[in-house]
Amino acid sequence: MTDKKRYEYRSCSAVMGTLTGAQKASRALANAAIPSSIIKIDPAGARGCIWGVSFSCNQKENVKSVLLTAGINVKSWRTDE
Question: d(Cα 22, Cα 17) in Å, to the nearest integer?
Answer without folding.
Answer: 8
